[in-house]
Amino acid sequence: MVVSGAFGRFADKREQQSDEQPIFDYSEGGPSGGGEEMWIDFLSDTGDGWEATYTMAWLLGQPELAGPDGKRLPQGELLLLGGDQVYPSAGPEPYEDRFVGPFAAAFPASDPPRGLFATPGNHDWYDGLISFLRIFCRPHSIDTKAIGGWRTRQTRSYYALRLPNRWWVWAIDIQFDTYIDNRQLDYFADAGDALEKGDNVILITAKPSWVKVEGGRFDPASWRNLAYFERTMIRERGARLVLTLTGDLHHYSRYQPETKGAGPTRITAGGGGAYLSPTHTLPPGVELRHAEDEEAVPYKRGTPYPDDRTSSRLRWGVLKLPVNTPSFGVLMGATYALLCAAILGALNAGDEGLVEAASGGGVFGFLGNAASGTPVIVFLILVGLLSGYADFRTVPAKIAAGATHAAVHAAVVAGVVYFMARPFSNGASGSLVWLVALPTCFAAGFVVGSFIFAVYLLAVHSIRGPHSPKHANEVFAGQAIADYKNLLRLHFDRDGRLTVYPLGVERICRRWDLTEAGTGPRFAPRDEAPRAAPIDEPLRFDPPGK
């Protein structure tokens, strides 16, 4: 993250994308020749767990899905990816294993091919966007690139689509929340020249910056950048911004202006395969302004998916952190073993010898001998690390939280060393204490240390809620919840109306069998097939985009 962030500032790959890219014209319908009627799928934040990613890819490859009131929703003729196609970081092998492989296996062939367009998120930028460009952006000398039954056409990390009946899709590349580059602005300026007054635009961006706006202020910077683009590139040209779609947060949520027509509907649909994000910490409403001197537009939040009650209940699962994330347990075990070694070294440095220093003077004598030299340095380093990690806004609060957190861990390690040394108080060799205490402290760190860390996260999250967003995310990331996925299916009808169908998958499929299906999916559900169901009312827009 550090390297890619620095690299992005000094060598922005967006400025280097020189291949010509047109406005992609689907005004007569999609690749299947549907005339002025068109179906489009939107999916974001894929490529984390294989089972979750393949579940969503398998559903997208089905000829139709069930909508509200038994309505059948045909497969999208285009698939639009909203960002973060691979986790945790980009690279050739992660893309092949976590995105290309599952999607090509779920929908290996289509005649005619379905279109595919992708927007990069911050995780796609962690290798400087190199792998994203190789996977999704063809050189202009190549007609298309295939990912199963989907075909890519874009040559840059952003694009504009002209759809039937004066509808448009614009997708922007915001890199790491930086200013939109000049080359990209020039491209959308040309696309804007093709806009006519009254055209409807759907904007795709990689981050729901509107949920970070507090008190109607014109910040943070990520919102200012998005607001600038919406104002100058769309509104000032007489077009109507109808929808803003994004992912980044791995749930479904919708913000609607309280006054109809006062602004676009803003939807986060980041349920393509990555671990679940909380919804109960989302603000019930936000006030958004597109310029410092503009009046703020109040937005209210609709029912998210999962709902607030379910999200709040799921947070308690973080207490199973040692089971859910054993690699974190190894980290905590190593930390405990390091502190244990420092304490044993300090005890062994005295004239009394390790065993006598540990058990001869009782608890207070042990603490007096242990709290010197190296253990103090290691403890202060731990305090510094945990203080910097603490998700509090003020320095004193960070230090208090970090010191308390570190003190609990240090107390556990000291207790283990003390009680491991007591059986050897009859004059046994101190080397036996080392042999017993070090593995015991590692085991204690793996189980107890991870549990203490989970309790800390849960406590801060429960008390501070949305004021500690990093810890709220980690309460859920530490559980790797694979269920509660979502996608959007958009229908542009022949009369110029748009209907958005938000669909959710409450439980992914975890058991698959390899098939010999030829052109069908390479893996089929072993038991019950995954099902997508409506998670919000259909969002209907008339031809003027209202």
Low-confidence region ranges: none
The class by helix and strand makeup works out as alpha/beta
The proportion of strand residues reads: 15-25%
Main β-sheet: number of strands, strand sense, barrel status?
Answer: 9 strands, mixed
Our count of helices gives: 15
Quick description:
This protein is α/β, with parallel strands linked by helices. It is built from 15 helices and 22 strands.
Annotation keywords:
single chain, 546 residues, alpha/beta, 9-stranded mixed sheet, 15 helices, 22 strands, 38% helix, elongated
What does this molecule look like?
This protein has 546 residues and is α/β, with parallel strands linked by helices. Helix content is 38%, strand content 18%. The protein has 15 helices and 22 strands. The strands form 4 sheets. A 9-stranded mixed beta sheet has the order 1-9-10-11-12-14-13-16-15, covered by helices on one side. Strands 2, 5, 6, 7, 8, 17, 18, 21 and 22 form a 9-stranded mixed beta sheet that branches. A two-stranded antiparallel ribbon has the order 3-4. It is elongated. The chain starts with a helix and ends in a 5-residue tail after the last strand.
